[in-house]
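Handover notes (outgoing to incoming on-call)

Open items:
1. Coenzyme A biosynthesis bifunctional protein CoaBC: sequence verified, structure written out, both below. Nothing else pending on this one.
2. Nothing else urgent.
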Amino acid sequence: QLLSRPKTVYTGKKVLVTAGGTRERIDPVRFITNDSSGKMGYALATELVARGADVTLISAPTKLAAPTGTHVVPVTTTEELAEAVTTHFPKADILVMAAAVADFRPKTSVTQKIKKTSDNDEMTLSLVKTTDILKTAATLKRPGQLTVGFAAETQNLIANATKKLTSKALDLLIANDVSQPGVGFNGDTNQVTILSKNKAPVTTALVSKTAVAGIIVDELERLVDSKEG
Ligand code: CTP
Ligand code: CA
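Coenzyme A biosynthesis bifunctional protein CoaBC structure tokens:
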């Protein structure tokens, strides 16, 4: 079956895809998370497998079934995701960071359920910043490795996304204006602007996440090509 597949630039390439929203525990019955469904990351993993890549999918919790042909590494917290990326990235040719990562986690972990009492009409939760996984990956990046990030923005899409392309040393950045209906988190559709260093941005129509995954993988293909010489 593998032999009958047409050869692509992705044939035999090791691609690490992260997906889903990380969870940070407040107490045994509560956690902080975000609106990520994992659909965009899973669609990318599916598309990359179809084009012959060897895909490891590091997945934060989702309701989705593992895409056929991927090696799934389940994680829950941002620190677990960071550790899994640090383990797998050195062996990978490409990292696609589609996971929606919690930026902050509770400062202290509580083993018992937090109770409401007669004297706590207000409560304050202290949070600390999590590891920026893509920034860590940037420090580990070897020549020839490609990194792809996402940017979820509600304003100044291109300006904010361009900053992330540079500060995270990315080869490709997928910018999402999540304030627009049908864009970004949770739904089955998306509209993205794909930024890269030496090429004009590419903006897709509002289409299915599967179609967006195809366009992203096409854009990435050019970079895989050029790096191959
Ligand atoms: N990301 C990461 N580690 C984090 C937070 C985000 O690797 N702790 C990655 C995401 O997976 C995504 C990219 O960084 O590919 C941008 O995520 P985003 O939330 O848009 O940007 P942040 O850098 O977290 O900045 P902000 O949320 O303040 O806009
Ligand atoms: Ca963030």
